[in-house]
Structure of Transcriptional regulator, TetR family:
Amino acid sequence: MSEMTVTSPESDRAAQRRNQVLDAAAVCFRNHGFHGASMAQISKTAGMSPGHIYHYFDNKEAIISAIVERDMEEMMEWTEIFYSSDDILQSMLDGVTCGVEANTNPDCAALMLEIMAESARNPQIAATVQKSNQIGRQRLSDLLIKEMAQRCAVSTVDVQVKTDLIAAMFDGLLMKSVHNPTMDKEALTVLMRQVMLFVLTL
């Protein structure tokens, strides 16, 4: 008999409140920047008192860390779909559409670029971002290795190099979506699939 994880109503409410704060903080960071957004603004946007927010987070750095960690959890859930596929290569190619949509979303781009800018100035945020990147990089590398095993293929390029190139392509969309918000995402997605196929089968 499989085990089931049971959460209490209290822990569910706490998780909901934490996410409520993170969503509100994301709005404030996008609109005002990390330094321009105050805890008072975040609390007002979240619809709760500053004291209530401090119950969950010590400061804005802790909030950003939680946002980065939440994004990483979502990425891990997404890659699990690829891991469980009988055809990882095709699943990854099919996933390009969602990847392009996510990384050209104006709200997502504004928030992630703000976090990256702050990580260049703030060692605490930098450590969080770098740790998240290392976890994501390893996860993608493991996925590429499993994908090659499915095809009984041997790569002519180091897997870590492939991993970094794929990450750079999608991360670059964040910046490009700010520079050119009207770019043809449909045409871009078609080309991205072709590039992904080329890189994955090297």
Remarks:
- DSSP finds ten helices and no strands in the chain.
- The radius of gyration is 19 Å.
- The mean pLDDT is 91.
